[in-house]
Amino acid sequence: MVVGGGVGGLCTAAVLARYGVAVEVHESHAVPGGAAHSFERGGFSFDSGPSFYAGMSYPRGRSLNPLKQVLDLIDEPLPCEQYDGWTIYLPEGTFRCSVRGESYVEQLRRFGGEEAVQQFRALERAIKPLADASSALSFAAFRADLAAPLTLARGLGGMVEAGVFAQGPFRAVERLNGPFSTLLDEAGVTNPFLKRLLDLECFVLSGMDAASTLALEMAFMFSERGRPDAVLDYPVGGSGAIVDALVRGIEKNGGVVHCNSHIEEILVEGGRAVGVRVRGRGEVRAGHVVSNASGWDTAKLVRDPAARAGLAATARKAPKLDSFMHLHLGFDGDGLDADAIGIHHLCVNEWGSGIAGEQNVVNISIPTVLDPSQAPEGKHTAHVYYAANEPYELWEGMDRKSPEYKTLKEERAQRLWEGLEKAIPDIRERVEVELVGSPLTHQRYLRREGGTYGPGVVAGQQQWPTARTGVRNLLACGDSCFPGIGMPAVASSGFIAANTIVGVDRHLAMLDEMEAMAATVGA
Q1: Do 370 and 234 touch, CB atoms closer than 8 A?
Q2: Rounded CA Rg of the chain
Q3: Angstrom distance (rounded) from CA 367 to CA 379
Q4: Which has the closest alpha carbon to 8: 501, 500, 481, 504?
Q5: CA nearest 58: which of 78, 38, 28?
Q6: Which end of the chain, N or C, is more open, meaning fewer C-beta atoms within 10 Å of its C-beta?
Q7: pLDDT tens digit sequence for 57-89
Q8: pLDDT of 178-213, one tens digit each?
Q9: Domains in the chain, start-ordered, CATH in brackets?
Q10: What are phi and psi for residue 86, nearest 5 degrees?
């Protein structure tokens, strides 16, 4: 039984169904996908959330991306359009970079000088053992019980070869679970521009700066992006195509996905989760329950006093990051050069308040430059948003139908418009469909306390909660547990939860199958 049909919950269910376990997903919204669902307005199709992907178009069995590994396991191909770069609008100027060649380094030299380049090279050397280790140790091998060493041993040889244990196993664990800033210190990174840029790289992944972001997350990102054949991918049909593929994989293996299915309670008896109470349907019993709700919202679903208190105490240990604002636009593309515009842009308004400052970073996606099927002919869509830098407190308690709410949305969306104007200066004159989403929108549709982006677990100071919740047979997946925020991370959490439910023999057999799959590519 999976509570919540976000990507973490869908990945859990897809892997369980592939194992042959009977599984149901209960999603409160009318469509599955959580923050990754797609929707249509006025003939335009929009991504509600994530739009930056890598490693999704590699041959079956060859990607390091856990989300692609789930899709490969359930044999659901995902057509993608490929591209190689993005644009960042910085206070210092426009930074255009690519995953191919020396573009990134050339831009570093332009803005930070030769010192920035040399320090980045030193950082690459410091990261390499961790990056190689993240390649050797697939999240598909993780589980959250005492059998974990048996499955993780599959990657031990690769980790030894990567040199991650050169300073001893305890130091290796410390570096992997520590903050990314520790690697910057080891590499002697002092160049102001490079440090600011790396804070930005961390922020768009985790919602936090380098001093708080998990080194393992960044090692994976650099590993995937640094491959000789690296490309960036945009799924044809948007993020909704990923959701559809996961649902197909669940259903063809005997699972069921229920939408408009609201969970009123996770049933706990004698300290053990035994099922759920579904609105309008009553009790549904299950051997295990996996919650894809946030840690704060999972605690609210449990009425057993002892279990609820324990879940709430765990949730309180992780501070909530700020929320989102979204600007979804359908606009006329007459006279625009789609290739010159490009799909992805970031805008940093200033450095003084720190990278996580209120409304400081604007994320921009124009997916129709690669996938025109999402808009009428000659038209485009744009998704512009703040992630983890819009305070919920400004919106709390507002009536969503009031004039004050409408006015505040218009005011708080101005920096979104200004960011997009850097890519398309006359965008306001081109707009045909305009939708503004606030933290209240995020809270309403995703049922997340405070509309939060997710937990702000500080690497090196706090430990991420694991899939195990402290309540027997109640597991967690999604961004409230290890390894955290982001599409690869929540897919990883799905692997961990599913693997923990099945016996180690079945888990090892699945790993054998995945290894054989990778070995047959190109054979």
Answers
A1: yes
A2: 22
A3: 11
A4: 481
A5: 78
A6: C
A7: 999 988 989 999 999 999 999 999 999 889 999
A8: 899 999 999 999 999 999 999 999 999 999 999 999
A9: 2-39+50-79+234-318+454-520 (3.50.50.60), 99-230 (no CATH), 323-434 (no CATH)
A10: -150, 170
